[in-house]
Amino acid sequence: MGQGLLRHPALGAPRKRGTAAAMSHWKRQTYRGPARARKAAPLRLPRDTTVQHGFCAIMRSGIDQLTTNHTAGLNGRNIECVHQMRVALRRLSATLALFRDVISSPSAARITDDLRWLGSILGRARDWDVFATQTVEKVNKAPRALVAAESSAEAASALRLAAHREAAQALGSARYYALIRAMDTWLAGKQWCESLDPAIRPLLEAPLAEAGRPWLDRSARKARKAGKGIKHLTGKQRHRLRITIKQLRYDTQSLSSLYADKKVRPYVDALRDLQDVLGDLNDLAVARKLMGIVKGRDFAAMNDRLGAAIAERLKALAPAWRHFRKISPFWE
């Protein structure tokens, strides 16, 4: 276990104090935090923040959100902590994608892979949590349907428990602690830009508000392209749209404090409303998939109700998309 901690490419040479001591140190760093879930604190970057300082501040914010929810997430004391850790992982991945023009490091790919690895495992636990505690009850209003919902939740309990055990193993693994330490070392030692082309290096000291405009444009273009023909998108295409909208929302959250609030708020509100619709549709689609695994009583009727709920929520998608498209980007 200890050797795994020190094998991460971004860690450098093993420390002289020994593997056990290193593991103990990084466990102390990552086991802090209350039993209640903690959302990320609002990120307020000074208007004159440079690209270099902005990247480090945004990454540190994501790491802090991840580690402060770790204890309760590991112990399974609060399922919302697992969700907040997933959010933190997505924020970190989104930040790496947003700043990719100035990231040049042999360790970048490994860190990205590890973020995806952990996000995938926590995602499975979160899917079962949402299925058991939210989605099934939402689409079952009648008393008879609620009995079926309870049956489905009971049938899902073993699978949900297994998913949380897998999550706990990942959160207590050497690979998790190596990832936290690797990101810390990566930022503190400026290893994330160590191989940057000399011609691009001056961009690190450029104002992030200016450098970020084309980056936000890039994310917004991807979202517009993914939402083209919104009424006729397949489930797979809507899933792709949801991912691009989520990336754009994280990007705007990271950089919004650099721009005028009166322009930021309408855009962010419209983006949030659109993401809410897409998120609901995804939860329902995932619930339908999980129902196929659970096969509880009244499976056919439950599946029909989930299908009806998807059709109903789809009615809100096109209006939310049109409203979002009408709002001018705040960075222009």
Write the layout of secondary structure elements.
Elements: H1 2-5, H2 19-30, H3 51-68, H4 70-75, H5 79-98, H6 108-138, H7 143-171, H8 174-188, H9 208-226, H10 235-255, H11 261-294, H12 299-314, H13 317-326
Question: Can you walk through the features of this model?
Answer:
The chain is 71% helix and 0% strand. It has 332 residues and is an all-alpha fold. It folds into two domains: 1-11 and 18-193, no CATH class; 209-332, Alpha solenoid (CHAD domain). Helix 5 packs across helix 6, helix 5 packs across helix 10 and helix 6 runs antiparallel to helix 7 (143-171).
Global Rg: 21 Å
Helix content: over 70%
The overall pLDDT, averaged over residues, is 85
Q: What gap, in angstroms, lies between the N and C termini?
A: 50 Å
How many discrete domains? 2
What structural category arises from helix and sheet content?
mainly alpha
Number of strands: 0
**Number of helical runs?**
13
* Order of helix and strand elements from N to C terminus: HHHHHHHHHHHHH
Instruction: Tell me the overall shape.
Output: globular
Please describe the biggest sheet, giving its number of strands, its sense, and whether it closes into a barrel.
Answer: none
